[in-house]
Amino acid sequence: MCGIAGVMFSNREEHVGQFLFTMLKSLQHRGMDSAGVAIYRPEPKDWLVRIVVEDEPEEALSKIKYRLNVTKYERPKKLNDGTYLIEFVVPGSIKLDEIRSVLRKLGFPILSLGRYSVISKDVGLVEDVDGVFKFSESKGTHGIGHVRFSTESAVDAIHAHPFQTPEFPDIAIVHNGQITNYWKMREYLELDGHVFQTDNDSELIIHYIVNKLRKGMGLEEALESAVRDLDGPFAFLISMPEGIGMARDRLGLRPLVVAEGDGVLAAASEEVAIRKILPESKIYYMRPGEVRVWTQ
Amino acid sequence: MDAVIDASKLMPREINRKLREYAKEYKRIIIRNPNAKHYIAAGLVADVEVVIEGSAGYFLGTMIHGPKILLEGNAGWYVGDNMTSGEIAVKGHAGNGAGQYMYGGTLIVEGDAGDRSAALMKGGRVIIKGDAGLMTGLYMMGGEVIVLGNVNDYAGEMIIRGKIFVGGAVKSLGKNAKVEEAPPEEVERVNSILRKYGLPTKDSYYVILPKSLRPVYKPPSGTPAMKKLFPKYRVVFKYDICIGCGTCAMVCPEGVIKMKGYKPVAAREADCIGCYACMNYCPTDAVKVERVAESMTNRARIDSSTFNYMRQMASIGHPPVIGMGAENKYFPSLDQLTFIPGQTSRPPIDSYREPCDTEVVLGDRFAERPLKLKAPIMIGAMSFGSVSKEVKVALAKAAGRLGIAANTGEGGMLPEERKYATILVVQYASGRFGVSASYLRAGDAVEIKIGQGAKPGMGGLLLGEKVTEDIAKMRGIPIGADAISPARHLDIVGPEDLKMKIEQLREITDWKVPIIVKYAAGRVADDVKIAAKAGADIIVIDGKPSGTGATPYIVTEHTGYATMAAVVEAHKALKEIGLRDKVSLVVGGGIKTGADAAKVLALGADAVMVASATLVPIGCTYCGTCHNGKCPYGIATQKPELRRRINVELAAKRIENYLKAFIEEMCMFAQLAGKSKLSNLEREDLRALTFEASMLTGVKLMGVERPASDLLRSDE
Ligand code: SF4
Ligand code: SF4
Predict the structure, then answer these.
(1) Residue B256: nearest ligand to its CA?
(2) pLDDT class for A16, splitting at 50, 70, 90?
(3) Cβ neighbours of residue A43 under 8 Å, at least 6 residues apart?
(4) Cis before residue A162, ω within 30 degrees of 0?
């Protein structure tokens, strides 16, 4: 799967959306099925939720309003894959569990859920996705993005990346590659109490990292451990409110290049994406098995 | 005056077309604003200087022949890939795979280079002024690398020929690599090369060299071999008619038959592989070879094949290799399907008197020149190396006369092959043996070999026994070395890589010919969808049972996916993504007659691939000794005394006869089912004789007139 990109500004809000848009456009040849970004703001706000429904969006919205304390909402929008996007805000005081269980009961898949982050993703080219979400106008401290060449799972908005699991809002991942010991690792994590929502290997990486963080590892240590435990070709960026972590598989089968410029850090599958936003900076090719963490 | 190309608004294809055009008139071309675009100067064959003012993306200068390229910025992955002559100088850094698969010319990187520089290089020179990453010179088969800085871990991993000079430190060596202090005359030679390019020199170098020519398949040594115990065949002589000429003993590849004076005797019957050469060549039919029932061990009931095999493992210490297909009888066979006729509900067509259209066009999705076959048959890839030149020429002649496609296989192209085959597919496999821009351009289609049915997930294998001088020259490898292709293309690790590979090959062939992706059947639906989306014109699926020139016995026996299930899945996958009418589907694996082929067409293929079966008309008896060059019929061998047993013209004629009959057979099934075109065969024309075949294919089960899967639904 795909092309990945990430950008971070140290301690300031900038046009992250515009940067990611430019980078993803130059990576478009790596995948044309779908595209998406996750953008972070510096402070937590109320829950921003985006869900997808197949039909009758107005009715779905009223069902949600009836069950959750919705303070703000947008008119449903039609996505490129034919489904509808519903966006609404729930006060930060509401428990995550409550939002999750209401949406699960209603059977509405969650596209984005977070207090720091917003995910925009859909099928189509980068421009098509921006046409729906206008993410290129968003500001933020950091963000990650993805263009997808789908391999084994379905091609629709929900299966586009960045990938997020409602288990851990505000953690998102973009991933280029496969995990070839997926079932082995999943079993191990399930024994540790993790609940998987999909068979997607990107979700596995999130669970894996969270598992290690909960065991007291730092992000960098967790990423190093991931490089040892996860098999197959991969390069991924994982984003959290604190920053972005990244890793490349041991054999270096998937590319990842980074540039650490003045107050701005960028990572991408190919140099061309970084050249577009930081033409002068020195580009560094990540070594096989190398991990890196950028924090605010 | 110099020509200038402003690349900022151009696609790689436009840049390359301009380059080719300007190269005819100008001596120097300047490319402005390259913006890290891919495939710049791909396959450029010209004596011209190209200056690129900026950074380039992937595959800069891939397969160039002649030009001198100066890149002022950084190069992405795979700079100088597979170049055959010319020069590329990179002022900045280079990504992974710099100089991979190189045959000739010089690549200079003034900064650092990434991992796997000079991987599978066969000739030419790579100079890296800075440091080089992991696995420099991975699987190297020739040529020379000079690194002025340090090399990272596993330098020279599995190198079998060539030299890697290192001016800095060598972090660690790969398997089969050894390191020495370079002798003074070598130091001077290296320094004089560096001076030529205005690069700094050093007083001493390490040089990394191969330990052995055959690190994988070392010839057996030391332990005396355990004898095979259980005979599979009985060799019987009729001494009353034997004339004592000794022919049988002479032709026996296994030394089973010995002459006692004028009397032949079967001295080591257990070694007989059932090639029937003794029978075939005996002038009086005085020898007979009969298969005997499988023996079993006393306890545990291990069958004779397995038992003999275990003893062979004990003798040689690595997995024994064989040729041809598997013995495994459990793969479902196309024989479990049968055609049903048209009667009055639909009338049959007279196959003796009425016409049947057999033409098919494959690969008209993006290619300017799709393949127009007179019959839906492609001869499967068999390389020059795995089979003899006589076989290659006979196949090309027969294919040419029938208007069907021949295939070079992965060992380069013989000029005769090109001359006789009207439609020739050139294979592009992971070893890239014999690959160059001119090779690819000489083909009518390019086949990217991802896998082969007989050994899915493994690369091509040609044992050193068959690597003679001719073969070595054509493949760019040392004589007597094993030609082992990597399990995956070093630059195709995932779907987006396949897409880039297809684009790269299109740049080289200028979008003229179809690009084929060939898979071993495995995760068929996923792989087919990926290839289709990556832009393939034609997809080939190779299922089980299927043939091979050399494969570990254990792999061919215990891997794979049945042809009949694979074709249905591939067809369905293409429909699901709405590309069934755009992408052609070709399916092979164990197809021997027109019946097998017609069934595969009815299940959804546009054409079939036939390979091993076309060797039967030349004499092949499926004995399986193809791997070691002892083929008694001169087919899978390079030995002149064995090759003499083939009369090329007669072999070509017999292949032609066989395939003509084959095509007529296909037509018979189409016509008796009421169709006047082969391409109109459909699943409804078939019935399954077994539950299993119906489950695998969705064909209606005979007697119940519904697919077996329907019967399993609980509400029925
Ligand atoms: S069948 Fe082949 S191996 Fe067996 S005895 Fe005859 S020539 Fe030798
Ligand atoms: S090609 Fe030769 S060695 Fe191989 S199976 Fe046929 S007859 Fe035997």
Answers:
(1) 1
(2) very high
(3) A116
(4) yes
For residue A101 the two structure tokens come to 């269980």
Q: Do domains A3-44+122-295 and A45-115 have the same CATH topology?
A: no
Give the tokens for residue A217: 């590892």
3-state secondary structure of B369: coil
In CATH, A45-115 is 3.30.70.260 = yes
Identify all chain A residues contacting B496, using CB atoms and an 8 Å cutoff: 1-3, 30-31, 149, 176
Read off the amino acid at residue A134. K
For residue B26, what pLDDT is reported? 96
**Cβ burial, residue A173 (10 Å; 0-12/13-18/19+):** buried
Burial of B327 (0-12, 13-18, 19+ CB in 10 A): middle
For residue B17, the tally of other CB atoms under 10 A from its CB is: 15
User: A80 near A129, Cβ under 8 Å?
Assistant: yes
Best mutation target among B496, B504, B506, B529 (most A Cβ atoms within 10 Å) is: B496
Q: CA B324, B689, B591: angle at the middle one, nearest 5?
A: 25
pLDDT at B49: 97
B220 confidence band (pLDDT: 50, 70, 90)? low
**What are the backbone angles phi and psi of residue A243, rounded to the nearest 5°?**
160, -155
Q: Is A236 a catalytic residue?
A: no
Where do the structural domains in chain A lie, given as residue ranges?
3-44+122-295, 45-115
| CA B379/CA B195 separation, integer angstroms | 51
pLDDT, tens digit, 9 for 90 and up, residues B666-696: 999 999 999 989 999 999 999 999 999 999 9
Residue B272: CB atoms within 10 A of its CB come to 25
Instruction: Name the burial class of residue B542, with classes exposed (0-12), middle (13-18) and buried (19+) by CB atoms within 10 angstroms of its CB.
Output: buried
CA distances for B502 relative to B449, B529, B544, angstroms: 12, 15, 26
User: Are B185 and B165 spatial neighbours (Cβ–Cβ below 8 Å)?
Assistant: no
Which ipTM was obtained for this model? 0.71
Which helix (H) or strand (E) segment holds residue A118: the answer is strand A117-123
CB-based contact, A275 to chain B, within 8 Å: yes
CB A68 within 8 A of CB A265: no
Ligand nearest to the CA of B628: 2
The angle subtended at Cα B16 by Cα B11 and Cα B20, nearest 5°, is 150
Could you tell me where the DSSP H helices lie in B606-672?
A: 640-643, 648-672
> What's the CATH superfamily of A3-44+122-295?
Aminohydrolase, N-terminal nucleophile (Ntn) domain (3.60.20.10)
Structural domains of chain B sorted by starting position, each given as residue range(s) with its CATH number in brackets = 3-210 (2.160.20.60), 231-294 (3.30.70.20), 296-321 (no CATH), 359-656 (3.20.20.70)
Which of A1, A2, A52, A144 is labelled catalytic?
Answer: A2
- A31–chain B Cβ distance below 8 A for any pair: yes
On whether any CB of chain B is under 8 Å from the CB of A252, the answer is: yes
**Nearest-angstrom CA–CA distance, A108 and B645:** 72
With an 8 Å Cβ cutoff, is B101 touching chain A? no
Q: Where do we find the tokens 């007279």?
A: B350
- pTM more than 0.80: yes
Characterise B510 by phi-psi region: left (phi > 0), alpha (psi -120 to 50), beta (else): left
Report the residue of B112, B493, B527 to disrupt the A interface, i.e. the one with the largest count of A CBs within 10 Å.
B493
Predicted confidence at residue B714, as pLDDT, reads 58
Mean pLDDT of B242-251: 96
Q: With 50 as the cut, is the pLDDT of residue B716 above it? A: no
- Asked if A270 and B76 come within 8 Å (Cβ–Cβ), the reply is yes
pLDDT at residue number B535? 95
How do residues B131-188 score in pLDDT, each as one tens digit? 999 999 999 999 999 999 999 999 999 999 999 999 999 999 999 999 999 999 999 9
The DSSP element (H or E) to which B529 belongs, if any, is: helix B524-534
